[in-house]
Fold this protein.
Amino acid sequence: MHTSISVMSFNSQQSFHRRLFADQGSREANQLLRLLLAQDGSTTRLCEAAAGGPVSLRVLSQQAHGHVPAVVRLQLPGERFIERITFLAAHGEVLMDNLAYIALEGLDPAIETVLLAGTLPIGHLLARMWVRREAVADAQDLPQRLWDAVGLPDPSATRCYRIVTPEGPRMLIAETYRRGMRMATPPRT
């Protein structure tokens, strides 16, 4: 499955609907949300499944630097990190918003090149690697940073976790699921 990539300014995301994941009291939505928050596989693949095909990766911001929240330095090695703010969308709906910090120290140069190019969703990149996801409880700064960038907080649909490889911790991710994950799969033509 091929996911398209585009780098965009903050203002150009207006054509996508970004909505809270669940309606108040929606039992079905809350059950789905519990499954999404508990899963430990590729969220990119889940978004593709919800959309019934490829999704668009929209890169809102990506830069390599050393100015990161304290939790990043506690969870990841090194002094320089890629900060990447993205969202995945399909059929005019935002499926999820993401903030990722990637440690550059010890990172394979080929992977660093792909990450800096912003040409693949992290989920597609991780499919090439053995990884483990570990929940991170004390990372309140990360969702707030994400919501400041995208404009819509949704604490109940948000999680933070660390990606660990055999070489050690590599990434720290905050993601917020959006109502687009609940879309009915469009018919294939």
